[in-house]
């Protein structure tokens, strides 16, 4: 396998491949190693390795990869041609072996569990401390208000960390599955790691789902089917002048778009409407309080309509839907992760999952009708979605999920 120096890659074979890793057809590929004159001991990728300094002499050997793997120095790098089959196999092995990072981690202690229980209790009321409804509550001292804000900040952080960790574990598992699909002979070695990580992944999914309210996911889906409201002139809009209708349409767009794809209460999106009205007024103040009050009432009306829609659809049969959630896009160095799934989509998958096919990375969800329609109509473009029970098929859900050919699925 001749190559020039410019076509070489130096890779740490000894720290990537261990004797239990299947090598497939690469085991017969000759690799150039360096060893002490006796030929015993570790094999090195370079004669300059520090452990060879005490050797009286060093000799070069061409050894089949499968014979050498047990003796490879874990500190050395081997120069391999860029077209060597060992390189992509090594990348696949790393994808699988990286699962070890997430296994056998220190379990949560009672203090951690208490923090999660408190986070669930807090988030059940909303994203922020409830607003005072009794005038006497406004006399609450600054320390109490500060503690309440801190409590809700902690709760949101707990949910964010659970969501982030669940998605990251899912991504690692997905990539390892894709790696094994490229090299099926790795399956017996990878199966144990993937099985263990699947159990950890399911624990994380359940922990995240415990911090999300299913009723809010359903109300979000109800917002999607509401007709766009029609603008009606209102004396309270006088301060907006000719910008009133434009502000109205923008407020609806901002509020509804955020509500549809969120895990929050519908009321927690009112700041988007407040911002639209404030921006429309710019520096002007006349008529601003009246406009804000009118838009608050509009938002309350939209919320009421969404909840009426939720109630009217309550009798609709739930649907079994199959999804294949995408892995997180790869990032470089300190680049932040960007999840292509919305908060709503991730929450729906975590909350309503009833089966998971590890080898295919697919999940079956049993969801209310409104949620099924939103998934099937406008889920993320890189997430295949399809009804899982066509023509009244009564096979077990695990069997249906195994038979689902998402690779052939095309979505408009």
Give the gist of this structure.
Helix content is 46%, strand content 10%.
The pLDDT mean sits at 90
Rg over C-alpha atoms, rounded to the nearest angstrom:
29 Å
The end-to-end span amounts to 47 Å
Strands ordered across the widest β-sheet:
6-7-5-8
Helix content estimate: 40-55%
What is the H/E order? EHEEHEHHHHHHHHEHEEHEH
Percentage beta strand: 5-15%
User: Which oligomerization state do the chains in this entry correspond to?
Assistant: single chain
Largest beta-sheet characterization: 4 strands, antiparallel
* Shape verdict: elongated
Please tally the β strands and state the result.
8
3D structure, described in words:
The chain has 412 residues and is α+β, with helices and mostly antiparallel strands. It has 13 helices and 8 strands. The strands form 3 sheets. It has a 4-stranded antiparallel β-sheet with strand order 6-7-5-8. It is elongated.
Task: Chart the SSEs and their pairings.
Blueprint: E1 8-11, H1 13-16, E2 30-36, E3 58-64, H2 65-68, E4 78-81, H3 86-97, H4 110-123, H5 142-182, H6 187-209, H7 214-224, H8 244-260, H9 270-281, H10 288-312, E5 319-323, H11 343-352, E6 353-357, E7 362-367, H12 369-378, E8 385-387, H13 397-403
Antiparallel strand pairs: 1-4, 2-3, 5-7, 5-8, 6-7
Helix pairs in contact: 3-5, 4-5, 5-6, 7-8, 7-10, 7-12, 8-9, 9-10
Essential attributes:
alpha+beta; single chain; 8 strands; 13 helices; 412 residues; two-stranded antiparallel sheet; disordered N terminus
